[in-house]
Design goal:
Length: 175
């Protein structure tokens, strides 16, 4: 086997990305502290043609050197918007018919591998603060709480890792 060169990867331009049909997934970042996590979420969202990212509360916004370091230009391809209040955004999305799923460990959560939606449904996933997780008021307002099954001793994943796992799973379900 031979590693592929960059020019063999079939990458599309930013303008082509903007015109491409997106996966009907929105990512909501609820008070994320780490700029590296924010950048990694942009990069992962680019990979799976995510429709939009909302940066809420204390979550930093581009342009920022630390975000750029992990986003590698994905802040230019993926649409994003800042919203101060995550709960208000969740209510706004729900009023537009978007299904909202908090990615969190809660009573009666749905395990990611058991979670399914109609392929025509638009979904917003909410990922929370590295220490406190998704705010309780946002969890309470969500249509679903989806949990990533974990078998080890920690039962805790970095938010950018959680985002990658969830987006990959949902992307596959939309194909």
């Amino acid at each position: 086997m031979r590693k592929l060169r960059n020019n063999e990867l079939g990458r599309i331009s930013v303008s082509a990305f903007k015109k491409t049909t997106k996966t009907p997934i929105i990512v909501v970042l609820d008070n994320i502290r780490s700029l590296n996590n924010v950048g990694a979420v942009f990069r992962t969202s680019d990979a799976f043609l995510i429709e939009k990212i909302y940066l809420c509360g204390i979550t930093a916004t581009p342009p920022h050197r630390e975000i750029h370091k992990t986003a590698l230009g994905a802040t230019e391809s993926v649409d994003w918007e800042y919203k101060e209040n995550t709960l208000a955004l969740v209510n706004e999305l729900k009023a537009q018919g978007v299904v909202v799923a908090a990615i969190e460990q809660v009573e009666n959560s749905v395990m990611l591998d058991e979670f399914s939606l109609d392929a025509t449904t638009k979904i917003a996933i909410v990922l929370g603060n590295e220490v406190k997780g998704v705010q309780q008021e946002v969890v309470s307002a969500a249509d679903y709480c989806v949990e990533i099954p974990q078998k080890g001793t920690k039962h805790s994943l970095n938010i950018s890792v959680s985002c990658g796992v969830v987006l990959w799973d949902l992307y596959q379900k939309f194909q």
